[in-house]
Amino acid sequence: MKLLTTLLAALSPTATVLATTSSDDPVQQQSTAVFLKIASSNATIDGMFLSAYHIGAAQQTLGLFYGPPQPNDTSAIFYWNTTVTDGVAADVGVLYWTMPAAGNLTAWFSLDFAYTSGTNVVGTSVSAGSGAQGVGWDNNDRLFVDGTMVDDSNFVPEDHPVPIYPIGIRLQQWHACWILFAPYYYYALAWVTAEMPHNPTCQPVSVVKVLGHSILIVGWLPFQPDLSTRTG
């Protein structure tokens, strides 16, 4: 079993690997910096970007703003980490946002969902907690959530249901909504669990990966609220 030394090496224009392990074990692969762009049939929000907006101690949500972001705008830079086994990268990984910490360290915050009872609209949460939602990119660089789907509208007693899709379905139920993260009220990325969103401000969107070096730097304007709430 040949041992690999710790390295930080470019595998492609979009990936690096950091690992000290055997060649048979999975290693972590991290993308280069990416921005997250909104695609929508609504021209008002189509082409906006996502950024970390403060909602609490060591916790952010993904708010919308008019871009493009500046290359050093850390509030809008994200990374996608996955594993590589026997030279094959997994389709599903974790989306991260980073923030400088004390002692020249970097704090890593993973994307997860912030569920609230009473609504089918789920806010996005980027925090330093242990939770992380498995996500990946489809062939069009659009962000998907890894999961299963069961139509519980057809459930009957004692008749065990079968998922209508196998494990690994690529769900894309993203919406842009005005969401209350008390006391903050943001136009932010959300996830609708099923059917029509309970929140009437929600509009369906896609989240598209854009490599940092491909951004054309021009003037940009924030979406409400102003950028004083953005982190970074």
From TrEMBL:
Residues 1-19 form the signal peptide. InterPro entries: DUF7907. Keywords: Signal. Residues 35-210 form the DUF7907 domain. This is DUF7907 domain-containing protein. It comes from Podospora appendiculata.
